[in-house]
Every structure is written in C-alpha cells, then in structure tokens.
Write a structure and sequence with these properties.
8-stranded parallel beta barrel; alpha/beta; 18 strands; Lyase, Ornithine Decarboxylase, Chain A, domain 1; TIM Barrel
C-alpha cells in the first residue's frame, strides 16, 4: 500500500475495498466477483492506486507543470474526485463537464480551464455565471463571441496549431491558429478589450514525435515576445496541452522521453523570456492518469466454431459500449481468458470476438491477430488498460441497454 493507505482512499471513495485477501491482484478480485455471484454481466474494476501512481510519476517528471485532467477522457465522478483531492485540476470542454466539477463534486472554478476553442454561446454564459475565468480561443470570430458575453471577465489563452502529423489523433486540422497569425489575433483582442494571459497548444493524442513539444514551446516564446512588442501586459501562462501516453502504450515515445523534452523546452523558454519566474506552465493530461487503472470483464454468451482451429465469441459489451475505442480511438484491445478452475486447454485458437448488437461493425477482435484457448458459453474474458476514452463515449443501440457495473479497489 502507498503511505497514505486505504483510510485516505475511503475518504475519497467509500466503495474502495481492502484487497489483501485477494493477494494484491486485480485478477483475483475479478475471479472473486464472478465466483461469489456478485455480477451477472460485464463489469469494470478500477484500481485507484494506479491513478495515484501516475499522479506521483507526473510530479516527479514534470514538477513545474500543473496538470489539468482532461475530464472527457473518463468523467467517472469517483475517479475525477480522487484526482482532484490529490491536487490535480480540470480541463473541461463543455457545460456538462463544468457542472460535474463545480455542482456535483464541489471544486472551485479557479481549478478549471475551459479548454474548448469553439464554444457554444450558452455554455459560455454558463461558465461566466459560475465564475470560470480561464478559457481559450483560436480565431477572430471566437474573440468577438467572447466579447459579447455581458460583464465577462475571462482570461484568455491563444490556442495555436502544431505540426502533429506524427500523432495518432490529430487536432490541428480542427483547432489552433497558425502561429504566423498570432500578432493579428492579439491586436484584435486588444481592440475588443479582452485579456489574453497566455498561449496553449496540443500536439495531438498519441504523440509520435517528442520534438513537436519543443518546436511548439519555441513558437509560444515567439508569441510572448510579440505580445511584449505590441504593448500587452506580460503573459503569464503556457498550456502545453495533452498527448501523454499511458505506461501500457508500446509504440511511440514514452512519458519519460516526452517529459525530458518538455523540461528542456521549458529551460530554453525561460532563457528567452524576461520575468520568467512569474510564468506558470500547465498541461491537459487524460489517458496518462486513467488508462491503466481499469480492467473490463466480459461474459461470453454465445460461440461457434467446431473445426478445432478457430472460434468466434460473442460477449456482452462491444463497440457501441465500452469498446467504442476500437472505432474512435484506434485501440486494439487484447483479451485473456479468466481461468476459474485449475484445468484449461493450452492449445491456442484464432479467435474473433464480437459485441452484442446485430451490427457487423460491432467486432472487438479479428481472428487473424487474436489467439485464445478454447472458450465456452459462460466463460469470461479480461481486458486490461480500458480506463481512457472507452465507456465515456458509449450509447444505446439496437435496444441493448446493459451498462457495466463499476467496482473500485486500491491494490498497490
């Protein structure tokens, strides 16, 4: 257990349980839930100690960068509350996310960045009404929209585009101003009487090139110097966005490699900008904190395949539910069979795995890249690293309304 132990965890999450009796192993806890008839369908186990571990890792690697958790990644209230109690702030993109942080969880609005460059007017009005101040823009039109909100006191960050061609999910095709247009945008903000306090960027989800961070930080330094040149009040915030991988990611730069690049980029930034001790660096990590925290268990309710060489399995969750990351997040979930008795076949079969709807697209795994031992109806499969961009984007389709139950634990 970590030093603060389970008593502290229970202050954040009364449902957390002490799992020493399960040999400190999430898989053993999952087996217990199944064999003790605690569950009847697919479910999720969230290990809060993994989230705590990631927070500690962030503080070690990037001590000068304040994290604002990307709520959209996984808005589970217990997870979000747990992160907030450890000092992590919040990146919100909608009125609903702001309401979760303020009304449901009771955190103050000074811990929120409203990090959506294209905001709905009603959402802006709501953000202003509850006292959210920090938000972003990337166009003349967004500046004009913000200026029309009565009695607003927003502090703005200019979102710039990045060279994110090597990232798995690119954002600069949708958000971010060309850095070359920064001066005109800053001058327009001055004309409208708006307060621009910094610059933000996002290198894309699944960053493939760590140099994108250092290049973007150099562009931000250019814009800080431009702001000084045109007589603006000194900027004070640099938002380096997201793109930070979980520990389970096997391809692309590691978090440690990215962190090293960012530390060097911040050092170079501070050498260029006067009064740099007053500049705050923030970021918007999402999957980095939560991806590895969650294991999903699914029940096999049907199968076919009698040739002894391959099998097709049908499970009670799919791409319209928890596994929508297959479609929307370029994920390739990998299952393992949950062995509830001592005997198990050792022969590996090519295995296709399908979700419960009648849509042919509702396929989690293909037979040509997935191998499992022989499975029967009623068996269970376990899926690791399912805490980011999974159930948060699920919806009802085909009359299938089963939502996996959550179980919270703390296993160090």
């Amino acid at each position: 257990m970590y030093k603060n132990g389970l008593s502290t965890i229970n202050n954040f999450c009364p449902k957390a349980v002490n799992l020493f009796q399960f040999n400190n192993n999430v898989s053993d806890y999952i087996k217990y839930l199944i064999t003790d008839k605690k569950v009847s369908g697919s479910f999720r186990v969230i290990n809060l100690s993994i989230i705590e571990r990631q927070v500690m890792l962030w503080k070690r690697q990037l001590p000068d960068v304040k994290p604002y958790y990307a709520v959209k990644c996984n808005p589970d209230p217990i997870i979000v509350n747990y992160l907030g109690k450890q000092g992590v702030n919040f990146d919100c993109a909608t009125q609903g996310e702001i309401r979760l942080i303020t009304e449901k969880l009771g955190f103050s609005t000074d811990r929120i960045i409203y990090a959506n460059p294209a905001k709905m007017c009603l959402h802006l009005v709501y953000a202003k009404s509850v006292g959210v101040k920090l938000t972003v823009f990337d166009s003349h039109d967004e500046l004009l929209k913000i200026s029309k909100i009565p009695n607003q006191k927003f502090e703005l960050l200019l979102r710039i585009a990045t060279d994110d061609k090597d990232s798995m999910c690119r954002f600069s095709n949708k958000f971010g101003a060309n850095p070359k247009d920064a001066e005109k945008l800053l001058e327009y903000a001055q004309i409208l009487g708006l307060s621009v306090v910094g610059v933000s960027f996002h290198v894309g989800s699944g960053c493939g090139d760590v140099k994108t961070y250092s290049k973007s930080l150099a562009n931000v330094a250019d814009i800080f110097e431009t702001a000084n040149k045109i007589g603006m009040d000194p900027m004070k915030i640099v938002d380096i966005g997201g793109g930070f991988p979980s520990n389970s990611v096997q391809n692309g730069p590691t978090f440690q490699e990215i962190s090293s690049t960012i530390r060097c980029g911040i050092f170079d930034f501070r050498k260029r900008i006067a009064n740099n001790d007053k500049i705050e660096f923030i970021a918007e990590p999402g999957r980095f904190f939560v991806s590895d925290s969650t294991v999903v268990a699914t029940n096999i309710y049907a199968r076919k395949g009698n040739n002894g060489e391959s099998q097709s399995l049908y499970v009670d969750d799919g791409v319209y539910g928890t596994f929508n990351n297959v479609i929307y997040d370029h994920a390739t979930p990998r299952p393992s069979k949950i062995i509830l008795d001592k005997y198990s076949d050792v022969k590996q079969l090519n295995t296709a795995i399908f979700g419960p709807t009648c849509d042919g697209l509702d396929q989690i795994c293909k037979a040509d890249n997935t191998r499992l031992t022989y499975c029967e109806e009623g068996d269970w499969l376990e899926w690791e690293n399912m805490g980011a961009y999974t159930h948060t984007a699920s919806f009802i389709f085909n009359g299938y309304t089963h939502f996996p139950r959550n179980f919270y634990c703390y296993i160090s």
